Amino acid sequence: MVNIINYPNKNLFKISKKIYKINNKIKNLIFYMSEIMYNLLGIGLSAIQINKKKKIFIIDISKNKNKLKIFINSKILYLSKKKIYFKEGCLSFPGIYKNIKRSIYIKIIFINIKGKFKIYKSKNIFSICIQHEIEHINGKIFLN
Ligand SMILES: [Zn+2]
């Protein structure tokens, strides 16, 4: 059962809501998101892509799909001026790929699954993925 919403569904343009409590409902949602993402061979997925307007996204860029990272209420603290082009796709835009220029380095603040604030620095493909997913939770799409 796959419930991904695809462009031009207008919900992709909605701003997701902050999470205040990481209860079982949220944990189940994250588990469900991970199943969908792995099933579709994606490397990132935001809750809004399964029609849940919540500031959650997950990323796993490992080949074995065993390094799931969960990001809740993420905010960008720093984006490097140094940028790179990368050909991006999106599970909500099947078959569409576009070269996009994004910062190589990023620093974000988020809360983890235990509700703790974390600062996370990343570079290259992981940084690009985070920037792509943060756009999703803020109601933007990668083609704009
Ligand atoms: Zn996407």
TrEMBL record:
Keywords: Hydrolase, Iron, Membrane, Metal-binding, Protein biosynthesis, Transmembrane, Transmembrane helix. It catalyses: N-terminal N-formyl-L-methionyl-[peptide] + H2O = N-terminal L-methionyl-[peptide] + formate. Pfam families: Pep_deformylase. InterPro entries: Peptide_deformylase (IPR023635), Peptide_deformylase_sf (IPR036821). GO terms for biological process: translation. Its EC number is 3.5.1.88. Fe cation binds at C90, H132, H136. Binds 1 Fe(2+) ion. The chain crosses the membrane at residues 29-48. The active site is at E133. One of its GO terms (molecular function) is peptide deformylase activity. Its cofactor is Fe(2+). It comes from the Bacteria. Removes the formyl group from the N-terminal Met of newly synthesized proteins. Requires at least a dipeptide for an efficient rate of reaction. N-terminal L-methionine is a prerequisite for activity but the enzyme has broad specificity at other positions. PANTHER family: PEPTIDE DEFORMYLASE. Belongs to the polypeptide deformylase family. NCBIfam families: pept_deformyl. This is Peptide deformylase. It comes from Zinderia insecticola (strain CARI). The lineage of its organism: Bacteria, Pseudomonadati, Pseudomonadota, Betaproteobacteria, Burkholderiales. The gene is def.
